[in-house]
Design goal:
Number of strands of chain A: 17
CATH topology of the largest domain in chain A: Aspartate Aminotransferase, domain 2
Largest interface: A-B, 68 and 69 residues
Number of domains of chain A: 3
Shape of chain A: globular
Radius of gyration of chain A: 22 Å
Number of helices of chain A: 15
Keywords (chains A, B): Aminotransferase, DNA-binding, Transcription, Transcription regulation, Transferase
CATH architecture of the largest domain in chain A: 3-Layer(aba) Sandwich
CATH superfamily of the largest domain in chain A: Type I PLP-dependent aspartate aminotransferase-like (Major domain)
Largest sheet of chain A: 7 strands, mixed
Helix content of chain A: 40-55%
Oligomer: homodimer
GO molecular function, one term (chains A, B): transaminase activity
InterPro entries (chains A, B): Aminotransferase_I/II_large, HTH_trans_reg/aminotransferase, Tscrpt_reg_HTH_GntR
Protein name (chains A, B): PLP-dependent aminotransferase family protein
Strand content of chain A: 5-15%
Distance between the termini of chain A: 56 Å
């Protein structure tokens, strides 16, 4: 499985990078076999995978060609949030989203739920069951406040891929990334402090700022390169910012990966103004390219980056296994972790540790990356096909979220209400802003295996939006 | 099993209440059989259980007699903490306690760990394993922010025993009682606010106040009747108190159960001064008498009591399944829960729900109550036997913690250090005070089945204390 996957990823990333252009002929099966020292059938498998992903198309007797450019929705412009610190609102809309219990009659395009049906997750379930049968019942005891030592070793090993050299004692296990975020924010900030955030930004992190009494300063953000360093620098000059909270790799909700040079420049800026950085990397392992992008943390030489992540997006959210590498804030984060939940549930920690140690994590990731990439392509196609003309959309480089921008005057809150009657749920754009901007935007999840049912749901979103827009234009 | 247990409990509570005095002859087996409509062997089983618990002793051919008064350590005096709001200290000592990883060579008398080896917990482990094998994989999904609905139904049913009429929608599931406490405090208080606490008080709750920036006002507390209402009233007159944080049933660390009349009076006081009450009931189900004591919440008619609990003491702490009934603060608590951990790990919730629904909870509690009561009796005996003369100790009515008071000048921090070298760990008294009082006190756990090894550990504590006291007296 590994060989052809690796080859497909290599070719896929060359196509994505434009080394092979749309319509161009790709190297022959024989040439690739010689070049990479793999069998002919391995190359054929790799091409078939790329074909499944819509990246190449075979022409009889001529070989494989890069697929012609798909029609893609235009990108949103760089965001223009209010450039002053604001008190965060929108809790009611977030509550509506997170109160929803999974229901077979509702397609939940709104939530940050990965696909947990993959057969590559089977060993995790096996491990969960085995732990319950062990005579020493490790799942029942209190854990050390740092979290399970075996799990922390595995996480430290995984993070080498992102350029981080961490030891198990640099890590604190948390109840999902949520707890990592709130402990980190509380370790650095006091109520009333100003936190700079990329914008749009994950609603959970923003509500955490709200709940802790911080003010958010939303920084303009580009849908391809991420937070505007120019705007950020202006803000750092103007305001006493304590913390920069950011999701630079496989951003939620936009899906961009901030280029490495900009990551380094961001860190330099933080050093110059002596500000801490909270780096949310929860989708980072789901970048469509391999090796995965480097973290800000990997460039951090004075411990100012608090790197937060979890297995909620890569494995399953119900496990609630997250972690934080808090750098110089370790002691403060430990205190915050202690008062927040005491310790983290044991059995899920042990199962995740086993899953990684037994070598199941990377094959699972490979499969999910490829599935999500295909999901993105289909979702973009559907938006082009079913959404009102002029609709813009992000171009995710990882993860499983698409950010969609409708005309300026549009209200996705109304859209969501109309959709719920039809059994479809989306995430409204306003919850991704501290001050309720992005009312004309929405976020959709493309993690689920693409079925006719999912396509029909996306179609309903587009057609309902069209109907509401028409009604608006005719004053209805 | 139920019949003889019930009878033993009834007789035991009559003895505890003094209806039968030490040395007095108890009703004959035949008389009890007729009176209660049970078989002779049921009565005999009941008497044998009471004998095991040291409450009665058989005399050949004469029947059963109430056991002669055991020599008990004297009770501590009512506590005299500093009666002004203070910033909370002692984090370093708490961290030392919670950083300790279970180790086979160390007897941890210091931690709040129940006995999880009981065969009555087997169905819980079975259920944890079964959930992992279910095809719909409920353990992997995000849960509703309130927590699993089935579990909340079961909790609502259990709480009827404490006089509470709660519906599932009145409850929020949390990651252990810790999260219930911190969400509750944050729902009511702002940083800088004053919180009145019983004293000594659970270190976790106190550290939560510290981490959230509150000040603690420690109220004198009686080792039998709990927080002094007179002192509390004075404090309420003098200070702008926002919240009363209290563990009235099976108090940690003292083990008392506040009498019902005083619970009602406390609530009246809170109403008069319009203050919220955080009621920590995490040991409440482990009262040695049945039915369990009523909660403050059960008398609350205007929603000012936030009742917090978990299954960490009754089942197992590694599950991290707690809950809160926040009364009028429900919406605020939901927000705090969301920002704290998003949602609670699913599989342990489902397993606990099954365990209760299938009828395993009450038999398990009966067994643990009886084991812990016997543990208390033995621990008190050991303190009498091995500790320095003049040592005082609490008289727990539930739970598995003993509070021990050594002479005024003694320093249990030094004792703990000396003990760690001998493979024994205690909880030092100072962590149970906001301002580091109770330096001459310690807390020991008597949950573990009483073995020679445990007795040897307690003996080491007493003998090391004696040695340090002697050295102190001779100026060493």
């Amino acid at each position: 499985m590994t060989l052809y996957f690796n080859l497909a990823e290599l070719l896929g990333s060359r196509i994505e990078q434009g080394l092979y252009r749309p319509g161009q002929r790709l190297p022959s099966v024989r040439a690739l076999s010689v070049e990479h020292g793999v069998s002919l059938s391995t190359v054929q498998q790799a091409y078939r995978l790329l074909e499944d992903n819509g990246l190449v198309s075979p022409r009889p007797k001529s070989g494989y060609f890069v697929a012609e450019d798909r029609l893609l929705p235009a990108l949103p412009d760089i965001s223009r949030p209010a450039q002053r610190p604001v008190d965060i609102s929108q809790w009611e809309q977030v509550l509506e989203l997170v109160r929803a219990t999974p229901h077979p009659d509702v397609i939940q395009l709104g939530r940050g739920m990965p696909d947990v049906d993959s057969p590559t997750l089977k060993p995790l379930l096996r491990s969960l069951a085995q732990i319950s049968r062990r005579m020493d019942m490790p799942g029942l005891y209190y854990d050390n406040i740092h979290g399970n030592a075996h799990l922390r070793e595995q996480i430290a090993r995984l993070m080498l891929d992102s350029g981080c050299r961490l030891g198990p004692s640099d890590l604190v296990v948390t109840t999902g990334c949520h707890e990592a975020l709130s402990c980190s924010i509380r370790a650095v900030c006091q109520p009333g402090d100003i936190v700079a955030v990329d914008s749009p930004s994950f609603h959970g992190a923003m509500q955490t700022l709200k709940g802790l009494g911080m003010k958010a300063l939303e920084i303009p953000t580009d849908p391809i390169t991420g937070i505007s360093l120019e705007a950020l620098e202006l803000a750092l000059e103007q305001w006493p910012i304590k913390l920069i909270q950011i999701t630079p790799s496989c951003n939620n909700p936009m899906g961009y990966i901030m280029p490495e040079a900009r990551k380094k420049a961001l860190l330099t800026l933080a050093q110059r103004y002596d500000v801490a950085i909270l780096e949310d990397d929860v989708y980072g392992d789901l970048a469509y390219t391999y090796p995965r992008p480097r973290t800000l943390k990997s460039f951090d030489d004075d411990g100012r980056v608090l790197l937060c992540s979890s297995f909620s997006k890569t494995l399953a959210p119900g496990l609630r296994v997250g972690w934080v590498a808090p750098g110089r804030y370790l002691e403060r984060v430990l205190h915050m972790k202690y008062i927040s939940t005491g310790s983290t549930a044991c059995q899920p920690q042990l199962a995740v540790a086993d899953f990684i140690a037994e070598g199941h994590y990377q094959p699972h990731l490979r499969r999910m990356r490829s599935q999500y990439q295909r999901g993105r392509d289909l979702m973009c196609d559907w938006v082009t096909r079913y959404f009102p003309p002029g609709t813009r959309a992000s171009r995710p480089q990882g993860g499983f979220m698409l950010w969609v921008e409708l005309p300026e005057s549009f209200d996705t809150l109304r859209l969501n209400r109309a959709l719920l009657e039809q059994g479809v749920q989306i995430a409204v754009g306003s919850i991704f802003s501290a001050s309720g901007k992005y009312r004309n935007c929405l976020r959709m999840n493309f993690a689920a295996r693409p079925t006719a049912q999912v396509e029909a749901a996306v179609r309903k979103v587009g057609e309902t939006a069209l109907r509401l827009l028409d009604a608006e234009r005719t004053g209805g």
